[in-house]
Amino acid sequence: MHTKVKAMKMLVGGKWVEGKDTFEVVNPQNNEPIARVPLASKEQMVEAIETAERTYRTTTVWPTHERIAILTKVSNYMKEHAEEFAKVIASEGSKTINEARGEVKRAAQTIQISAEEARRINGETLNFDQNEGSENRVGYYYRFPIGVVGAITPFNDPLNMVAHKIGPAIAAGNAIVLKPASVTPLSALKLAEAFMNAGLPEGFLSVVTGSGREIGDTLVTHPAVQMVSFTGGTEAGEKITQKAGTKKLSMELGSNSPVIVLEDADLHDAVQSTVSGAFSAVGQNCIGVQRVYVEKGIYQTFLDTFVNRTSELNVGDKMDELTDMGPLINEKEAKRVENWVNEAVAKGATVEFGGKREGAYYTPTILTNVSDEATIAKEEIFGPVVLVYPVDSLYEAVEQANDVNYGLQAGIFTSNINQAFYAIKHMNVGGIMINDSSDYRIDAMPFGGTKGSGIGREGIQFAIEAMTEAKVVSFRLQEKLL
User: Fold this and answer.
1) Residues contacting residue 304 through CB under 8 Å, at least 6 positions apart
2) What DSSP letter does each residue of 431-444 carry, written as one string?
3) What region holds the Aldehyde dehydrogenase domain (predicted)?
4) Can you say whether residue 451 is alpha, beta or left, with left for phi > 0 and alpha for psi between -120 and 50 degrees?
5) pLDDT tens-digit profile of 45-90?
6) How many CA atoms lie within 13 A of 13 on its CB side?
7) Cβ(88)–Cβ(180) under 8 Å?
8) Which is catalytic among the residues 252, 331, 380, 458?
């Protein structure tokens, strides 16, 4: 039985509209179409941006309490319709139904935190009299919204990444125009429905669907867009930075996340955590475990246990609650992963487990003896493949972990606080998880990386700071009294 194909509209300037052309959204598990979505034109993207700017400029007052109320209503709506959201995520993307339910829970929390942080967009008084000659001056600074935010989101977290753009933007009082990933636009459209149902004033939110080549450049380069917030691959992020011009940028890009396992670690805990970190969401996760460095004294035991635990994962139907891993986002990506693994094997790597593809499915795969010259050793695989290396020491592990052009997150397993702090000090990453894999995040924490992993930090409080500007106010007092 074929799934009924649903005709969708996109949100442009607060209005639900069709496109002259459409494209199909398919379930990667079986390639069945599940929805037909507008293929926006450049003119429609311009309309969304200009409506957003006009709405922002003509809204003289948008009280904080109204923004809080809208965000709270959206979060509550998501909780009340959690299963509907989860089924959308699981049907259009790679996540299993259980993973999708977890994403809905996180996304609702992201929106709720945005409501809470809207209360705390504060400034500070400034001591102008610290400067000689300014004894008669007093003042402060406060934060004000920047205007129009342009946002581009990836397919791997099609709801929560969208929430991380829209939530802080609305909390700060901005208008936002969002282009979701073309393969997973349905979650973003459903979240847009929640905002409109909550009473968001028309024009403050647009979700424009279509080709990045057709409308992405327009969003990035339009002069009315004061900030571009992008989550995606490093190559695409670099192109955006070249095109955007003099505007704010927030770039959460790729990674090749390392985890270090030392001899004094809890081996069972380290295996459980790294297997989950490597293969959840089919490895399509920017902080997923890709490289594991294990001290030689426990290397073989760790590897054997890691292989055994990986072999227990159930690969299959995303909607089955017993499934641990579904397909990649499409067969093209599965073939790319297959090619990278084959290249590594041709350069001397050993496949300890997995290494097989069937359509968009790729088995969870463990490689050892991977050459530094292999693509998979230096780049982000964004698939269910993990590389395991023996190391002589923590020093060697840190050196190898740092030897890539990424630095998003890392993990280390040890019971020695001194070794933990050595890693904290010397690993060049945006976040380091002690006795956790790299794949740990809460939505309130600052999230971002170093080197090729991005610019700036997400996490609601930190995104709001990026989506606002500081304005200084100084009063020169005159002591003459009438």
Assistant:
1) none
2) EEEETS-S----TT
3) 16-473
4) left
5) 999 999 999 999 999 889 999 999 999 999 999 999 999 999 999 9
6) 15
7) no
8) 252
DSSP code per residue over 149-173:
EEEE--SSSTTHHHHHHHHHHHHHT
- Give the single-character DSSP code of 195: H
By C-alpha distance, which of 277, 382, 363, 354 is closest to 316?
363
Q: By C-alpha distance, which of 4, 9, 429 is closest to 256? A: 429
Task: For residue 123, give the amino acid letter.
Answer: G
pLDDT in tens, 265-295: 999 999 999 999 999 999 999 999 999 999 9
- Name which of 247, 257, 293 is nearest 433 in CA terms: 257
**Is 80 one of the annotated active-site residues of the chain?**
no
Secondary structure letter of residue 122 according to DSSP: -
| CB of 279 closer than 8 Å to CB of 313 | yes
Two tokens, residue 131: 């400067």
**What domains are there in the chain, each with its CATH number?**
6-253+453-471 (3.40.605.10), 258-434 (3.40.309.10)
Query: Could you give the CA distance from residue 363 to residue 282 in angstroms, rounded to a whole number?
Result: 9
Secondary structure (3-state) at 18: coil
Distance, in Å, from the CA atom of 11 to the CA atom of 7, rounded to the nearest integer, reads 14
Query: Which H helix or E strand runs over 248?
Result: strand 248-252
| pTM, rounded to two decimals | 0.95
Predicted local confidence at residue 60, as pLDDT = 82
Tell me how far apart the alpha carbons of residues 154 and 39 are, in angstroms, rounded to a whole number: 17
Residue type, 306: F
Annotated active-site residue 396? The verdict is: no
**Which of 47, 103, 117, 286 is flagged as catalytic?**
286
